[in-house]
Amino acid sequence: MEVRKLLGFLEILSKSIKILSKNGRLMVVVTTVYLIIYSLFFVLNLSSIKPIITDLFTKGVLLPSLDPQGLLFAQSLVTILKDVKTLVGVEIAFLLTLFVISLFAQNAIILVTGASYNDKKISNKDFISKVPRALTRLFITSFHVTLLRVGFLYFGLITLMVPTIMVSEYKIVYKMILWVLVILVVTLYLYFSVVWVLSLVVSVLEECSGIEALGKAGRLVKGKKLEGLFLNILTNLLAYPFLHVLSKFTLVSQSELTQALFQFFVISCICLLITFEFQAYTVLYFECKKNNGEEIELQGNVEYSKIPSTAIVPDHIP
């Protein structure tokens, strides 16, 4: 069974690579625009908050040494609160911008991949008209998925904290339990993410969103969830080195231009991984359809399941 699942996973990867040649020019344009705009805004975000964080840290270190009843303490506290408000405002603005960019990119990638999987050419005019139609459904589903992810992260944090606090006096036992729990929480997160990400594909290719899309994705992926788990593990393993290098390089003393160029390059690589992930999930969606005995036909932006042509004849008719 595991060998069959592994072969199915490799087949999904193979099909995801092969369909790049169909509507390839449009996919290149979508991917290029996505990684340039997203990476640019990400680098701007880091460069914008860095001086604010540095100033906030400097003032925070000096604050305990000041007289709590003195004028200088009050002025420093007011300045710190002002910096915090500025930091929160800047972060909210950038996060919303990055979220909108991601939505447009995911929407476009899924639509182009869906057309390519079904051997259909999509013109620029049709593509431009289709993107806004599915964007609202994708936004609603993304909102639900974000809530689920935040809820799971809180659950994972509590799961990691409670047992480790109870055995914190025993360092060896503490480390063993912590590693076991970390592996368990990460595995569960990747496992649940199969349905969460697939629901985004469903909301773009079908007329449903939110809880309905999550339910449809859960029903579709039955029998194929292990392939989705393999896909999540692969993409996260490939993304981890980039994130690790990005975090380490940020701490290294380099010129601002060097840091910005390096950050742009790393985030662009991560965007390419995300693009391939959504291509693979779109292929997984159609494979799940086939696995459930449904034959897919895409017409415009609406998906239809073909009804078997065998007629149902009442038993009493000779």
UniProtKB/TrEMBL annotation:
Q: Which organism is it from?
A: Artemisia annua
Q: What's the name of the protein?
A: Uncharacterized protein
UniProt keyword GTP-binding present: no
Give yes or no: UniProt keyword Transmembrane helix: yes
Kindly state which keywords UniProt assigns to this record, in alphabetical order: Membrane, Transmembrane, Transmembrane helix
What are the TM regions of this chain, as residue ranges? 26-46, 92-117, 138-165, 177-205, 226-243, 263-286
Q: Which domain of life is it from?
A: Eukaryota
